[in-house]
Design a protein that fits this description.
The protein has about 325 residues and is α/β, with parallel strands linked by helices. It has 13 helices and 10 strands.
Length: about 325
């Protein structure tokens, strides 16, 4: 029997419903059938998924689209690109506690923001405040412990619980279908980026070293991995409760949280697939709009911070590609 290809996946946080499709594929042995052995890796406070990928510590990294843009504009040694969008619909937002009285981005002036310290994150938040008529330079940014991978955050799986509810900060960036549900009904204010003229990109995405460089992964295993993963997400979208159960069975910290995870999974129903029923596809127009926004507002800069990059300086083909995705539109969905 041929040896399985080991695929290490750096998750972007503790295991949650953004990752369910992969756990479904794993439980149903679809990776095994594709000749793959998947290992899920939760980053520590000493690194990030994208940096782990660049260092060769993993084969796949789950990250926001900003990570793909960051590597495409600063790292000439590695060809790291987004190879699939996990979600088609934006489900993240800046949030505050309703009890804080901060009811809009403008209200973040002179207030604290708990940041993951992403390269573009603070600038995006500042622009949101500006677009709402405020002064973004007055937001008081401070970093989350270990870029959000600190022990307290990992244990609670909630920045809201560890920072906002304890008074350590006033605002942060969350996924509404996870931390929003954990926080409870009528607890948080949400500031959706799109509502404040920020054409946010895909988040999260899957990053990989794309074939064509000396450090690139083999295209065949990547295509097999994405096909099995797509089956998992198609299943999760069609059967959220069963998918949630499969996730909880494989993650010890979620074993007693099946009801919550099911609620989170149902909140994502319809967000995984395109109107044609396909998972993973990324539209160039959506990437283009986000890149243009970042460049128009001088958010993409050289690593030294001195040079603002123009849109013509960023090669979209280095940022993302759909060419390893399966062509089927859901007809291969299998039952457990």
């Amino acid at each position: 029997m041929a040896t399985s290809k080991i695929v290490r996946i750096a998750l972007d946080w503790t295991p949650n419903t953004n990752h369910t499709g992969m756990y479904v594929a794993n439980a149903n042995k679809w990776y095994e059938a594709a000749g793959l052995e998947v290992k899920f890796v939760v980053p520590t406070e000493n690194s990030t998924p994208a940096r782990m990928l660049a260092a060769g510590e993993v084969e796949i990294a789950i990250a926001p689209s900003e990570s793909a843009i960051s590597f495409a504009t600063t790292d000439t040694k590695n060809t790291i690109a987004a190879v699939a969008a996990i979600l088609q619909r934006s489900t993240s937002a800046i949030c505050t506690l309703q009890s804080s009285g901060i009811a809009s981005p403008k209200g973040l002036e002179n207030k604290r923001y708990a940041s993951y310290s992403g390269r573009f994150e603070d600038c995006i938040v500042q622009q949101m405040v500006k677009n709402d008529g405020g002064d973004g330079s007055k937001v008081q940014f401070h970093g989350l412990e270990g870029h959000g991978y600190g022990d307290d955050i990992q244990e609670s799986t909630s920045v809201v619980a560890t920072y906002l509810k304890t008074g350590k900060s006033d605002s942060t960036w969350i996924f509404k279908h996870w931390e929003g549900i954990l926080a409870g009904t009528d607890t948080l204010n949400y500031f959706d980026l799109e509502h404040y003229k920020i054409p946010y990109g895909y988040s999260p995405v899957m990053l990989a070293m794309v074939p064509g460089t000396s450090s690139a992964t083999d295209a065949a295993w990547l295509a097999r991995f994405l096909e099995a993963t797509a089956r998992g997400y198609v299943f999760a979208d069609a059967h959220p409760d069963e998918a949630a159960r499969l996730l909880c069975e494989q993650v010890e910290s979620l074993a007693d949280k099946v009801e919550f995870v099911s609620q989170s999974q149902r909140a994502l129903q319809g967000a995984h697939l395109t109107s044609a029923g396909q998972w993973g596809i990324m539209e160039e127009d959506r990437w283009e709009a986000f890149l243009q926004f970042l460049c128009d507002n001088d958010i993409i800069r050289s690593r030294d911070g001195y040079t603002c990059l123009k849109r013509s300086d960023v090669n979209l083909n280095k940022v993302q590609t759909n060419r390893f995705l399966p062509s089927w539109h859901g007809e291969k969905e299998a039952s457990t």
